[in-house]
Protein 1
Amino acid sequence: MALMQYPKQVILGDITVRDGFQHEEKFIPTDAKLWVAEQLILAGYKRLEITNYGPPVLMPQFKDADELMKRLKTSKKVAKYIDDVELSCITIRERAAARAIQARQEGIGPDRILFMVSTSESHHKKNSGLSLEEYWKMCEEWIPKAHDAGMKVCGTVSTIWGCPIEGPTNLKKAVEFTKRFLDIGADDIEHADHDGSAPPDKVYEYFSMILDALPNPDLHLAHFHVTRGWGLANVLAALNAGIIKYESSLGGIGGQPANFMDGVPVGGTGSYYYEDPSITGLTATEDMVVMMDEMGIRTGLDVDKILEVGQMTERIVGRRLRSECAHTGRIPKTLTGRG
């Protein structure tokens, strides 16, 4: 009998506090963001994405970036764990990278920052304001500066499986961009399906190509959106290809930065993504960790605590979220009830 082949141990990161909350149309209180981050650390997470150092005028959800990082770094609740936790922040452009470096020098900065390229020129221009060649030059300048400040750099490659502006894209181009990021000093690569375009067969094909070209699995991180409901199917496809690093958000929340905040229109992403902003979101943390637990994959996480944090996150945002396991729980291992 043939058995499915997949890694028996994985490394998971949660990005609720940054990617998850950035799509919310109300400001999530700093106290709530801090609570979620602390609880995830107590549940065993060692990789969290916390905030975005980009312009608050465009993304007011992150106007508390410095305060949140300082409070998390000095939190008594997680003081015994924080040195072993890698905290990441988004820094798409130079000014954001400079903010991260300054914060790092002050002792409250991230351990890892992210630069982002899209294989689609028009999507990249919309996202960063620079052409691809201009952005590569910027990365060549700022990756060494980040390293000098003691931070790692993740290179995000997006529009791998399709672009909301240009349509179909070429998988080979994403492999080339991955190599280029690593060649100029990136420490790892986030392979992102930012608009939910990736079907599972193409996920398997792409990550097989990636591991053929760059076989060290520690270099690669899978990031899936669930715009079309394929998040866990794509996680399974990536597992079968041999990928061991994944990230997700509680309740499957998240997506592009909100265009509306506390009753006021803001810059956000703009209108080019979706007519209905409610259809965005990422793979749900709760469902992914329960699925992996059922498959016998070691995550090092307290699954029951994660389900509890997911339920509380629903109360923080004020609505039912997209995780099924946050409500159905784990599969019982013993018979209960009346027989």
Protein 2
Amino acid sequence: MHQADIENMMGSSCSASGFFALRVLGDSMLPEFKEGSIIIIDPDGLVKDGCYVLAEDEKETYIFRQLRIQDDKYYLVPLNDLYDTVQISGLEVIKGVIIQRAGTRRKDHKHYQ
């Protein structure tokens, strides 16, 4: 995802707690999220082990991964084994929780809790 695109969406006239949508770029979250899928993010969503999140890394770029919590440590895990897991300092880097995947066909739509 391009940071400028995310900032433009996040900086729109919507309230800070409003849902927003992003298009998945790349294959790091295959097979669950194909490139081109639309994900809906809730900035105030419940952050828990196993949920899909949008986070800001130390380079001030955004990353979409699955959150894993183990032994009081936090990790952003790709679903595609070709990519590395990233350890994060804590939940403060989480910018939102993915609550829905939308696609061009109804069968591609899925809700996450």
